[in-house]
Design goal:
Keywords: Membrane, Transmembrane, Transmembrane helix. By secondary structure, the protein is mainly alpha-helical. The protein has one domain. Helix content is about 80%, strand content about 0%. The chain is built from 3 helices and no strands.
């Protein structure tokens, strides 16, 4: 395999590999897990609504982290 001149130490690669971005994604996944657990743990209309909101907030956090990587 030849290298084709690809550089893995570019500024965008360094930005995309920041630990803070991956911590943000992991935090978002944990929030999604809490929302999913609450969604199926109890049978209440209000708790179901709150759990859906928590789930979408976690998904938004994850998407924000992914777009930070893609923006790099």
């Amino acid at each position: 395999m030849e290298n084709n001149g690809l550089k893995h130490n570019t500024e965008s690669m360094k930005t995309a590999n920041q630990a803070g971005i991956y911590k943000l994604i992991i935090f978002g996944v944990l929030v999604c897990m809490v929302g999913t657990y609450l969604r199926f743990a109890f049978d209440s209309s209000m708790l179901s609504l709150v759990s859906w909101i928590i789930l979408f907030i976690g998904a938004f956090i994850c998407i924000k982290g992914v777009f930070k990587i893609l923006d790099a």
